[in-house]
Amino acid sequence: MTKAKAEAAKIAADGRRNHKPDRGRNADRDGAMKAVIANLQAGDRLEVALAKANRKLATYHSWRQRYKWFAEACDKAREVLEAKPYQPITMGFQDFCAEYLDQPLPRHQQRIEEVMAGITPDDLTPNMRLTWSGEDSANTRIIVNLPPDHAKSTTWSVNWVTYKILQNPNIRIVIISQTEALAKQFVLAVQRYLTDPFFEKLRALDPPGGWKDDELPWRANFMYVRGRTTADPNPTLQALGMGQQIYGRRCDILIGDDVETLANVNGYEGHGATLSREADSRLRPAGEWGEADEGGLLLILGTRVGPVDVYSYLRDNAKDVNEEPGFTYFAQPAILDGESLGKDQWEVLWPERMSAKVIARRRAGYADIRQFQLIYQQSDIDDKAPFPAACVDASVERGRFPGLLDPENPACPDRGMLGMRVVGGVDPATTGGTAMVIMAADKSTMKRYVLDVFYERGVHADKLISKMKELTEKYGVQEWRVEINAFQKFLLQLESLRVYMNARGVTLEPHQTNKETKWDEDWGVSTLIPLFKSCGEQDGKERWVPADKKAVGSYLITLPSPRNEGVAALIKQLKIWEPGIRKSVPVDTVMALWFAEIAAREYLLGRRHRLGKSAKPKFVNKFMERQSRKIGRKDWEAQQYAYGVWGSEK
Description:
By secondary structure, this protein is of the alpha/beta class. 38% of the residues lie in helices and 14% in strands.
């Protein structure tokens, strides 16, 4: 017995001699105290010592306050433990999973580990996709896509994070997920690995006193472990939701785990900016840990959720100065081979858990097989949305901010606002969202320039009228198109508004949306589709990509950079719009854009293109009439009307 242990035993013995034994329900307290002290002396950390004695932490603190001898004996026993330095593990991740977690690493996870180490797996199949980042990125930015239920989060956001902490208690790791609540689940799982007596093998790796230090914060969303040898203020592990402030928080590893789902896929551009610009700027810079240090690691994990999502957006658009990929991208499908054959012929990614039978059952649940290809096969699919996301993105002039066209800005026309007709569309609402779109139309080029967008919920009549006047003065609006369904009629009936507009030569035109007057909103909004498709073109795989700006008839409409909520809302709502969606999802800015386009189109193409009760399509020949039936009457009419190929009124 060492001198320190002997001294602790003597203190305990002296205390017990002066301590009157309890009777009744607390008769076993002395035995429990002795057991706790003995467990601590044997090398158990506090939580384990208490668990073995069947006592809680609150009881331990109560005993320390009431019995001085107990507190002194415990402190002396813990001092002996804490004097021993922690010995980090040196084994590899695969060995750690097998030996300490009883979870042998599946082959598809081994491939990911090899890619993270800069090694090309020797068993890649043709439908796996591996693209290495350029030299500037040095494989420190990695995107990994896996099908659902293939242990992506468990392996990397829990097991691997635990492994990295055991390797180096000074490590700083941030996990970002769609919500903070989801990210907290990963932190909780890691905390269990580090403290729960259930994981007996892991307890053998604990530092003296255990990982949890009562003097350091240990919360649901962040924690500091015992054994840190630096004064760095950043936590060992912390959880954040997408969009939460991360400035001022340094880290060595940043994991983005399922940052995007079907619920927020339309925000892929903002998510990419957060991960690639803001989050990545908090990573450890290269060289901080020595000359060979390449810096911190950004690891983005997820499952494909849309034709354009944060994964494909960063993969295809993030480039270094040499135009090489900014991210290493690795995707593995659920079915590796034989997909076109029966399920008995399938070679699957993880046969031990996700067998061909399981995958076939899930595949049968998809009415649109393209969705299965996207989510389970991690395949790029063509964008079948009415407004293709790639076309909407291409229409955004990043160098032009909301406001008047500046002739000195390369992103604006050379003549600025000269010769432009400025029109506005208003979709008013007192309980939902009120939207206004200001557009400039150029008759010489047939192009439309969205100048500004206002979008706000719960706008009352006074503010609505005030905003219309403000935008009229700022942009020199010459015509307003205002929806007058139901209660909105009051706008055009206000004498003060009419007098104000008349005095400035501004036309106030009503717009009534209903099928009886041929102003069907689904049909009308669909006439905007060709304008946005003029900003894109389809490649060999029928995917939309930005069009050549010098091509004739391209970029018939452009939007300013989304520097305000209105423009950002318009971009988002265009991407999600589909016929009938207005009843369930707000698309007010799209409606306001349509109203403005009606006025612009009449100016560009003439009054004969104004739709009314008698407007009918003119078929040049029987073939065109058959084509309209084949692709759908409304789709055909929308295409013809948008390009001005439309019959005159009777």
